[in-house]
Specification:
- It contains 1 helix and 11 strands; from the N terminus they run H-E-E-E-E-E-E-E-E-E-E-E.
- By secondary structure, it is mostly beta strands.
- An 8-stranded antiparallel barrel has the order 2-4-5-6-7-8-9-10.
- A hairpin with a 3-residue loop joins strand 7 and strand 8.
Length: 167
């Protein structure tokens, strides 16, 4: 008897594809967490990454294929505090629910880091109407005051966002 309500809740939570086209302009509050990787000189380190919170603004540049520019500020919270920016381009192939991104990322204060980022993810609607995005983002930092000489640092995280269509 208790199985039926659980199945109903699970069926309602299964993500469905988003609208046929991504919005021309959207704002997306986001939160992410993952692992940080570092190393050099034959040595490597893996640890839980700082949580990131931020807002991305995405603006469509082309409709077929759907290509958009994105950018915005973010903050590292919990394990350490910092503010930074990220930006780049995203491709939304096919019906627009999948997305692939490539760009740059930089930490501005209280220390500096700069590098490249790549992501793969999806924009879905939960319960039929709530837009949610899930992205796996990877970043490689190769310059900055927080990076020991001759080393590279990286980060892989799962980022959950709530895209709000502006236009």
């Amino acid at each position: 008897m208790r199985l039926l309500p659980c199945l109903v809740v699970l069926a309602a939570a299964i993500p469905t594809a988003a609208a046929a086209d991504p919005p021309i302009l959207s704002v997306e509050p986001r939160v992410g967490r993952g692992i940080s990787l570092g190393g050099g000189a034959g040595e490597g380190h893996v640890r839980i990454s700082p949580m990131t919170v931020g807002v991305l603004v995405e603006y469509a540049l082309r409709a077929d294929p759907w290509i958009a520019a994105y950018g915005g500020p973010y903050a590292e919270v919990l394990d350490r505090g910092a503010i930074g920016v990220s930006g780049g381009v995203r491709l939304h192939p096919g019906d627009g629910w999948a997305r692939f991104g490539l760009g740059g990322v930089g930490v501005l204060a209280p220390y500096t880091l700069a590098g490249v980022t790549a992501s793969v993810g999806a924009r879905v609607r939960l319960l039929g109407s709530i837009p949610v995005s899930f992205d796996v983002e990877g970043a490689a930092f190769f310059v900055g005051s927080d990076l020991p000489e001759g080393r590279v640092a990286g980060q892989i995280q799962l980022v959950v966002g709530f895209p709000l269509e502006v236009y």
